[in-house]
Write a structure and sequence with these properties.
Blueprint: H1 2-22, H2 25-47, H3 58-87
Helix pairs in contact: 1-2, 2-3
Organism: Micavibrio aeruginosavorus
Transmembrane segments: 59-77
Protein name: Prolipoprotein diacylglyceryl transferase
C-alpha cells in the first residue's frame, strides 16, 4: 500500500504546484482530493489486517481522481492558451 500513498502525495504536490502556477480552483480541489486519498490510504493501511485483498472502494475512487485530474489539466492548458492568444 505504500506505493498508493506515495502516488497520492506526489500527485497532491504536483497539483499544488499547478495551482500556484495557474491559480485555478480545479487544480486546488484536485490536489486536495489526492491528498485526501493519501490520508485515506494511510487509514486503510492501519485498519486492514490483511483481509483487504480486493479493494472495491477503488472502483469509485480511481475514476473520480482520474476525471478530476484530467479536468484540471484541461483547464490549466486552456487558460495558458488563452493567455498566449491575448499577448499576440
Amino acid at each position: 500500500m505504500l506505493p498508493f500513498i506515495i502516488t497520492g502525495l506526489v500527485s497532491a504536490l504536483g497539483f499544488a504546484v499547478l495551482w500556484s502556477y495557474s491559480r485555478g480552483r480545479t487544480a486546488l480541489v484536485t490536489g486536495g482530493a489526492w491528498f485526501a486519498y493519501a490520508l485515506y490510504e494511510i487509514g486503510i493501511q492501519r485498519i486492514c489486517t490483511g483481509e483487504c485483498n480486493i479493494r472495491v472502494d477503488l472502483l469509485l475512487i480511481y475514476p473520480l481522481l482520474l476525471i478530476l485530474s484530467l479536468l484540471s489539466l484541461f483547464f490549466v492548458i486552456r487558460q495558458r492558451l488563452r493567455r498566449r492568444d491575448e499577448k499576440t
